[in-house]
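TL;DR need structure tokens for one chain.
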Amino acid sequence: MTEKITPLETQKVLDLCSGIGGFTQGHLISGGFETVAFCEINQYCQQILNLRFPQIPIISDIHDITVESLARIGVGEIDGIIAGLPCPPFSLAGKRLASIDERNLFSEFFRILRQVRPRWAIVENVPGLLTAEGGQFFLTVLWQFAQMGFDVQWGVLSASQVGAIHKRERVWIIATNSQSSRRHTSWNQYEKERTNAAFVGGGNHCNFHRSSQSHNSVEYGARAIAQRTSSRGDDGFSARLDRCLLTHAGLTDCLTAATVPSFSRLSRREIAALTLYCQQEYRQLWAEYQAIRRQHKQQLIALGNAIVPQCAALIFERLKRILSQQRKIS
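>> reply
TL;DR here they are.
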């Protein structure tokens, strides 16, 4: 068991496509990070974020995020960007339109990455991302990172690995810029100097893949499913994180679905037999019940789209090890 690795200073994080905050909950488990702004368009999810993180501002539309718009809400330098980008363009349950799907927000993500210039980024999506458009879409994602000077690791992590009763496999991409001394140079300069995919990295570590100098190796890695690993024991994770894998204080109330009460609906004849006062009371109760059902539906949708915080915590632990190694090298 390794000791807990914490960055030398708290990392400022921009959370894109935030949902109900599972990504941010993940780094709260891991420690060493601070979300300075959310971006979420769904109104119900915004309500949850405001309830759980009232001090963190929310930008509704990802298309509105610029350095200037962030400055207007008091957000300056950002160390990292986390993004649970919409999965319908890549999901095996959908049409898998990928690059031609209007819900595909990878272009917006890379636009923000170029403008904000963070030291690192983490992206989460469904495993279908790896094989969309015959694997070419994911290769393009790796190429975009390479052009901006990022080293990339990726792998598949299942919720069952952190104690859940369902699989819920998700792809996680960790991109880090080891060229810290060049952080304030132009991205155009980056793109001119790093136009070969070989600059993305090489080799394998644990159940994560790195982009390779070989095109065939990159394609193989993009299609590979990571081997399952244990979340306990001598697995390289800190003892503090192990204690958080199955339960974590404060998560239950936020992420547990409410129970919808039962309602015995009356027929028109039965309603007509009631007194006028009882009819009014019945209609009021029915309206309240319908409101609860709508709320419950929104909650289930939000939970279905949510990032498992304990999975995110494992990814943040890995990121901290990468950042620590980069400091030792530099």
